[in-house]
Amino acid sequence: MDLQFQKRKILWGGATAASQYEGGWQEGGKGIDTQDVRPYIPRTSNATTATRLLTQAMIEKGERDTKGRYPFRDGSKGYYHLAEDIQLLKELGMDIYRLSISWARLFPNGDELEPNPAGIAYYDRVFDEIRKAGFKVFLTMNHYAIPLNLVKKYGGWTNRKLIDFYLRFAKVVFEHWGDCIDYYLPFNEINAGYFSPFNGVALLKPEDGGYDQSLVFQSLHHQFVASAKTIELGHSMVQGKFGAMVACFCYYPYSCKPEDNLKQTLDENTNTWFCMDVLSRGYYPSYMQSFFDANGIEFEITDEDRELLKHNTCDFVSFSYYQSSVASCEEKEKTAGNLVVSTKNPYLQANEWGWQIDPVGLRVTLNRIYDRYQKPVIISENGFGYADVMEEDHQVHDQYRIDYLNRHFQEILNAQNDGVDVVAYMMWGIVDIVSAGSCEMGKRYGVIYVDADNYGNGSYDRYKKDSFYWYQQFMKEYREE
């Protein structure tokens, strides 16, 4: 019997995050958040890592310091360019826009009983502009940044109280903008809590030594519970679909040596699949108990938690993809990558930040994730960071980005032909934003150039890159097929 696979039209769009895009960190009563205290460190071999390993002393300094360079406080100044940017994205011809809401703009301290009226008014304007533009909306409810007060007073996600604070925030989102939102994502790249604990779960690094892994996994568990409770509440209040998201690194074994293949399986289970297994399947996978036992990791999971996770799984799965990684049981040459360090792949080229550019890896990832979960798939982040140069006539000739997008788009279409149910693709940093990985403006992703440098100098005016016109034409031709 022939099986007929019914392909749906893919939604094409772009994405930003409030902490990286909005700026206006003191406008409208917004509270200071965990990204506002991350300092700019000129790029060195360890700058990307150092900006993500914040200690108690660093956040205290950041909170007091009003003169130092903290790039997320400016972002792309989207707070002031809202209508202009939405019009540019409408001109681009997107189907769907991924954005996030600043928790600290709605609840400046995070534990208030009522939301900040000025924050409500700002997001009323945001969704009004999006509605007029006609985009479908993919909302990331929490994209790394949380009110700093929740870290100082409660210990971040180590504290179970944050679940209730987060649910209060989620309820306000559903009540005010639920009719505007098509897809909800409770937590961005939830597995970042494991490999980037400050960004992922707002966990401070001890002044000496590494993170307490039991606290890392307790924090992640609290996010799992918060996600399930958000889905439970959301399904009772709104019509949109709810998803889960992980950062995918597409692990390959370095060789056909059995030990390399075993390491590939174990690395991918822990770094990628664990979080999605919990949120999509509704239970902790058996392989993680072995990992916990081997590493002396203990944390609390209640019977009520297990029931909640079991009955409130995600409606769709989503992921970010920038590069592939290599697993080897022997020490090999390393490359920095975007979020994690990996063994260098001799068959791939890399950009100046060490990313191993691998379009085929995106197709591999789409097949792996759909085969594993059998739920609709959304590519919620993908793009190419590069030190773009704007010419004197305000032109930006980014053929390298066009080539990157073209090759990755072809692999998405190939994966769809493989039978993967691809719902949407969202290009990361569609307007240039501050990089969450390296805390710099100079690593640009967008098809729209923002005239600002790593130190906040520049007009912040917007200019269309060559890739703007290429992506515009691609979407037009795709719809006409």
What does this 3D model show about the protein?
There is one protein chain. This protein has 481 residues and is of the alpha/beta class. Helices cover 41% and strands 13% of the residues. It contains 17 helices and 14 strands. The chain has helices spanning 18-21, 47-50, 56-64, 82-92, 103-106, 117-133, 148-154, 161-177, 192-195, 197-201, 213-237, 258-281, 286-294, 303-311, 359-373, 399-418, 466-480, and strands spanning 11-15, 96-100, 136-140, 183-185, 241-248, 251-253, 316-321, 325-327, 334-335, 342-343, 377-382, 422-428, 448-450, 462-464. The strands form 4 sheets. Strands 1-2-3-4-5-7-11-12 form an 8-stranded parallel barrel, surrounded by 4 helices. It has a two-stranded parallel sheet with strand order 6-8. The model has no long low-confidence stretch (mean pLDDT 94).
How many β strands by DSSP? Answer: 14
Largest sheet: 8 strands, parallel, barrel
**First-residue to last-residue Cα separation:** 28 Å
- In DSSP terms, counting alpha (H) and pi (I) runs of 4 or more, how many helices? 17
Shape: globular
Residue-averaged pLDDT = 94
The level of helicity is 40-55%
The CATH topology: TIM Barrel
User: In CATH terms, what is the architecture?
Assistant: Alpha-Beta Barrel
Determine the structural class based on helices, strands and strand pairing: alpha/beta
CATH class assignment: Alpha Beta
Kindly estimate the percentage of residues that lie in beta strands according to DSSP: 5-15%
Low-confidence stretches: none
